[in-house]
Amino acid sequence: MGKVALAFLAPTFVLLFVLRVLPTVQALIESFQRRASRIAEPRWVGLDNYVALFTNDGFLQVLGVTGLFILIIIPFQVISAVFLALLLNERFPGLGAARAFIFVPVAAPAAVATVVWGVAFQPQGPINAVIEAAGLPSQPFLTSPDQALLAIIVLMSWIGVGYWTLFLVAGLQDIPRDLYEAASIDGAGWWRCFFSITLPNLRRTLAFVVVANTVSSLIAFVPVAILTRGGPADSTRLIMYDTYNNTFVLGDVNLGQAEVTILLLVLIVITALQFRLLGRERES
Asked: Which CATH architecture has domain 49-283?
């Protein structure tokens, strides 16, 4: 029986090794190498690529922009998803339409959603038309270093909030209704129930959403690549786009692989944090 199961699983293990493990090991090795040209033989340079990155003001700015992006988008998406999940967990007229309105963006391909929002953010686009109709000055959005990153956050949140809401709605529906009924008998109000019942029972789902959202945000690429290409003034130059730019545009594969390794280490730390949080929840 074990041999039969292994035979069925073997193709999956082979694909996992070829598509995941092997490229990761190759990236790690190449991050310690350097090529004079694409056709030249690589030479071992140790940590030189990493030193070059962390002593480069441009890369430090990339880390700063990525950190700011994470600090804004994660709380915004999680709080919005919690609010929508609480709303969709109730019964009210038009619930079906509300669910469709929130969940439809999840089904839209990222590239399509990016193009649509790119049109909406144009100087003569529909968003500025509404702003001008309200008697306010039009906004530059994607052409402004002060607004471009926020515009990307709005775009990605339009796509992502509905996705995370799905998990939170499922988490809310797993909370026993008896707890709310008992709290109601004891005279607890909505806020008391929220902080004493809802949040404690939703911690595992929230931990997953926060960690998974952080990972997906760290590898955000499509909106930046299509709309801003890291500009204006590198205000939207996230680490994933910078990795692509170094590797495929500038042709510095080894520097790009060093960035990939740094990003991979960050993702490993976040994943380890996720298991730690979930492990503590199981123990409690």
From this structure: Orthogonal Bundle (1.10)
